[in-house]
Prior knowledge:
This protein is an all-alpha fold. It has a single domain, classed as Glycerol uptake facilitator protein (Up-down Bundle), CATH 1.20.1080.10. It is built from ten helices and no strands. The termini are far apart.
Amino acid sequence: MDNLGVVFMSEVVGTAILILLGCGVVANVALAKNKGFGGGFLMVTIGWGLGVYAGVIAAYNSGAHLNPAVTLGLVASGADTFGSGVPVNPVSILTYLGAQMIGAILGAVVVWLAYKQHFDQEPEAANKLGVFSTGPAIRSYGWNLVTEIIGTFMLVFVVIGFGRNGDGGGLAALGALPVALLVIAIGASLGGPTGYAINPARDLGPRIAHFLLPIKGKGSSDWAYSWVPVVGPIIGGVLAGALSGVLLPILG
């Protein structure tokens, strides 16, 4: 398998694990009759952080981007290669983005399989959708967009900052534990308004799975909101990459 093939499989597997554990903790908290039912937002935030931890470890061969905002942020920063050593070019960028979306969809499907009986017995369609995708506490598309931009900026900016002290780029540049703590910190601090997607694949991939899967009484997939957790993280990631050269100057 060539380098791009390794990158593709690494990103698929890592992103699938991220979504399986991340959406899985939401299912545990939100769906009726689970042992974790009612565990609260802090449990969800910790679960997502640990999901990132596991995904980063599994995707070390690709630099563990696991997130289109990270990939595009690294491109905007002027990186010549990704953490995998693969040159930055249109083919490698599309490889990362495609693998992340496929992994996100697959991870969401496995969550549905794991919680199939609980989905069937959950009376609220909104709780079922909430397992797969984010939604705002107060629906205001402009302000929801701002929140996602800020949260994703923090993620990608710190990722690039750590990467400047090491080699390569991607979440793996931080190490699995620091990036997990970073995600928990962002969720605990900025996650309340929108549920902090901070990752276009994390929201869009599972939302597509929700739309396609035969989930009993699932209701709408809320496509009216779906652009916010895609556009916001992309803007935030690209801004972080573009400003990193000014705000994170390289000394030497």
